[in-house]
Model the fold of this input.
Amino acid sequence: MKASKDFYNKLDVAILSAKTIESTADTGVVEVRWDVGAVWPNPWESRVLLTGTSLLTVRDDKDNNIITLLKQVDKLDGNKPSDIVGSLTSQLSPRFWDVYHIGMSPSAERDPRLTTLSPSQLSTSRGNKGLLSSYTLSHLPPRLVTEPSLVDTNGRFGRTAQALPNHGFTTAIKTMGPNKEEFVPVSPIEVSISKVEGQDGSLIKWTVPVPPEFASKAVLPLPVIEEGEDDEEDTTSNDDALATSSSSTYSSRRPNTPAPEDPHSLKCNYSLRPPRLVATLPYAGNPQDEEVTELRRQLYQQVVENDGFKPKLDPETKRPVFFFWMNDAKACFTRAGGLGMAVYEWRADWAKTNEIGIELEC
Done:
């Protein structure tokens, strides 16, 4: 471990969960899920992320109050659980848009997507991707995420979903001056929009993966949420790079429309996201564009009707779970304070770097 810390510019390990697999009178087997994040010592400082589990066989000496580790088996997520070299090298090459915007933020830590799927990962989906299907099928391992949400009544033209809401931030990041702070950008930011049963408006939820540098803390801070807070009382200084205000997203609304209403039912929490099987299509726009509806229909037709995959249904609305990946956005965390800034990059429309997705049974 000491040699690793000397080699990497940064190295962090976060323990996300642990569960007992076997237990006898004096021994037991525990499965531990972890994330390992590092900054590679190359000129563009690639951020690499390894996710996986460890099976620990331990002996409990109750008389002496000692737990002894007898055996440890580490496995990476994916079809090649021991291929550390392959998992690392696939993340070291400079990504075009990270280099293009290198002056805005460091390279982002990408949420892992496993596109080479094993039969066991497709066992319950009962689908088979067709040769002419244009979507990408991916398996996502469990991750610790932060999930701010709100109920919005302004509709598509309010554009509330385009930026992280203020109540999702737990700190502010200083990016200039003598007290400039280091931060970890992560991507993508996931947005889901669903109907609220029995109420007006839509539930908008953002899902942001938490980097190991911050997740390794024993206690994670939650934002202070004050509904009905007056925007004029905002105390953020000019030096702070608190990147977004939900009110700022209303600038693109159509002329002659009424002023937007403030969102309500503001919430934010951390959760361990379960493993997911998803299908996605590339898209160049934003979560609340009119074109998204048609692309959702096309995606559902390809994945469910043509290829036979079973969509995951929302437990309340009983509708398929769609989402939007903002790959042109980076959520930025500090080690001590957590989520403190969001960066929204310009990207050419022809690149179609964002994605529209549907969640499948897995």
About this structure: Residues 229-253 have pLDDT under 50 and may be disordered.
